[in-house]
Amino acid sequence: MVKIRLKRIGKKKAPFYRIIVSDPRKTTHSTTLAEIGTYDPLKDPAEIKIDEEQAKKWLNNGAQPTDTVAGLFKKAGITK
Questions:
Q1: What does the DSSP 8-state code read for residue 78?
Q2: In the predicted model, what is the mean pLDDT of the chain?
Q3: Which residues constitute the domain of residue 9?
């Protein structure tokens, strides 16, 4: 099973995340299958950029989003 999850790439006390598709048995910093967006929680309001076409493709292929990513998808209007 494939997961859609966040990969933190920001500095200390300045988080920035990439939304990635990867194998859940590997770490987030190992090889990823795809990068489908970014999330910047420090901006007001938080900035969410997601490639909607790729996200829907991975969801239709059976990828499971984590709880946090599912919430981001709802805010972006990708899922209900």
A1: S
A2: 93
A3: 3-76
Mark 17-31 as b/e (b = at least 16 C-beta within 10 Å). Answer: bbbbbbeeeeeeeee
pLDDT in tens, 20-41: 999 989 887 888 999 999 999 9
The domain spanning residue 59 has which CATH number?
3.30.1320.10
Contact 39, 47 (CB under 8 A): yes
Sort strands 17-22 and 47-50 into parallel, antiparallel or unpaired.
unpaired
Domain count, the chain: 1
Contact 21, 31 (CB under 8 A): no
**pTM of the predicted protein model:** 0.89
Q: Cis omega (within 30 of 0) on the bond before 45? A: yes
